[in-house]
Each structure stands twice: as C-alpha cells, then as structure tokens.
C-alpha cells in the first residue's frame, strides 16, 4: 500500500495510518504528509478492497455516476485494480451520526434530502442491477436464518414459516408498487459526512454537503428505500411526528420533479415508507446477527434494540404483518435482544 501511495504521489515522505473499517472486507487508511493530495495542507485516503472479496469495479463505477450527477462522492486520485487499492479525496471524519441532535438535525437532513433528490433525478441508472422481488425476499430471509434461528435459538414450525412467507410476499408487493429510481442502499448517518473544506467553486454544480460513501451496492429500486434508510436510521431515532413531516414534505418535492404522481397522497406514501422500512429492518436484524456469528463483529448487537422497535412498531400497524409481529415477540420473549446466544463467532 505504501509503495502504491508513494508511486501515485511521487513522494516518499508520506505517513499511512488506519482510518476506519466497515462491515465488509474493505478497510480505509489515511495518508498524511506534504503532497498527500492536490491540496498540500490536506490528507488523502486509501481504500484497501481485497480483489478476491470485494468488487472494486462496482465501487468505481458508482462513484463516477454520483460525481457526474453532482453528488459529493470522493474524487479518485489513483487506482491499482490488481491489488484493490484506491487513492481518493479525504472527506474527513465528521460523519452525521455524532453531529446529529435535535438542534442540528433539520439543517443536516435538509442537505441529505437535497442530495437524495438529486440522486433520484440526476444520477444515471442505465445498467444498474435491479432491486427485484427475488432480491428483496432473499434479503428478508436473513432474518429467520440469522436472527430467529441462530441468535434466538428459535426453531420455526411449518405454520410459522407460512406466516413469514405471507408477510414477505406482502412487503415485496408493496415495494414493487412504487416508482423506481437510483437506490444507494445504505443512505444513513454513518455514510454521510459533513464536509469542512468548501473549496469547490459555486458554479461547479457539485453539492458539497453531504459527502457520500459506501455506495457500491447501488441498484434501481423503490423510491422510498433511501428515504427510510435516512429517516428511520438503524443508529439514531427521531419522534414519529417529525419523521412524518419530513416524509410528506419529500413526497411533495418528488411530485414537483414528476418522479411521483400527483395521485399519491400522504396515506399512500406513508404506507410505502413504512413497509419499505419494515423490509429493510427485517433484513438488518439478520445482517447484524450474521456480522457477529459469521464475522465476529459484536458491536452491531447493541444496535438490534432500535431495529427491533422499528420492526415491531410497523408490523403491528398493518394487518398483513400483524401475525409476523406476534411470532417475533413470542420468539424473543423476555430475553435481552442484545445478548448473543453463543460466546464466539463461527
């Protein structure tokens, strides 16, 4: 990695230190030293994406699509595809999550919703994978496999399998009813950054804030998916009235762009938003458990409680998912959802 950086920057006086890792096999390294980027006072970041485990091509392609659409994805400085290295603009360390408060959220989400609207109206989606019915259902199936059976130790009966299948069908149907657009798939507070440097010319057409990362899994899919990722974030919760206001205001903006028909009222939009969120949160219950039992990443278990509240709250609100809520609450019982049933992964 150091040789790659030194060759790209044509310097030897650089320092490389760990910046972060994510839920995948990618890791990120901050490069410091004179000449670390086009701005001599700034740093750069190296992404290490092992070629046998990560698709670097998809990451680079989506980055280019976002930047071409006027979004602030990282500028690419150098690439070594064989080794899986990318040297890129450093978007800093100010992720949304620690910056969010009741005082700051409206301004930060205003930027994020501006970016989301631009993603859905300006980013080229030609050739992107389809967020198909099969894919939506396969994602939800992570929940019974990793959350119910592995995490809770709950063996499903044939009747319970039928309840789950019926709910999954209803959720896939609701997702398929929606207009389609670019979907980031992880548009939330850990993947959005407050950009401190504002050197971009005002006429460049680039939305400086927020910085956007972790976009490599983008697809074409339901219009509310990224909206619910942001507003019912798995890592931070807002009161229901505030969320409803944001959703309806965004509905009106979507209608102004003609992405959403004028016939779609608040009730229909809320239903789509709720059921899309339930699909996502069922998936996440499975993913967070898999990250522990398969990958040994325990920190996501602490986030299960919020995802559970979202899941049960919405599932109880709609008749087609009420029996699923009963099943889930029975399986959990009085247990602490954050407590792993196994002492080690594997």
Keywords:
alpha+beta; 12 helices; 9 strands; two-stranded antiparallel sheet; 346 residues; 5-stranded antiparallel beta sheet
Task: Set down the secondary structure blueprint.
Layout: H1 2-9, E1 15-21, E2 27-32, E3 44-48, H2 56-68, E4 76-80, E5 85-89, H3 96-99, H4 105-122, H5 133-140, H6 142-151, H7 158-177, E6 180-183, E7 192-193, E8 211-212, E9 219-222, H8 225-231, H9 240-256, H10 266-293, H11 304-315, H12 322-332
Antiparallel strand pairs: 1-2, 2-3, 3-5, 4-5, 6-9, 7-8
Helix pairs in contact: 5-7, 5-10, 6-10, 7-10, 8-10, 9-10, 10-11
Structure description:
This protein is α+β, with helices and mostly antiparallel strands. It is 45% helix and 12% strand. The protein has twelve helices and nine strands. The protein has helices at residues 2-9, 56-68, 96-99, 105-122, 133-140, 142-151, 158-177, 225-231, 240-256, 266-293, 304-315, 322-332, and strands spanning 15-21, 27-32, 44-48, 76-80, 85-89, 180-183, 192-193, 211-212, 219-222. It has a five-stranded antiparallel beta sheet, with helices on one face. A hairpin with a 5-residue loop joins strand 1 (15-21) and strand 2 (27-32). Helix 6 packs across helix 10 and helix 7 crosses helix 10 (266-293). The longest helix is centred in the last third of the chain and has 28 residues, at 266-293. The chain is globular, with a radius of gyration of 21 Å. The protein starts with a helix and ends in a 14-residue tail after the last helix.
Element order: H for helix, E for strand: HEEEHEEHHHHHEEEEHHHHH
Low-confidence stretches: 35-41
Assembly level:
single chain
Alpha carbon gyration radius: 21 Å
Rounded to the nearest angstrom, the distance between the terminal CA atoms is 30 Å
Count of DSSP helices?
12
Mean pLDDT: 92
Number of strands: 9
- The helix content, as a percent range, equals 40-55%
Indicate the overall shape.
Answer: globular
Approximately how much beta-strand content do the residues carry?
5-15%
Category from helices, strands and their pairing: alpha+beta
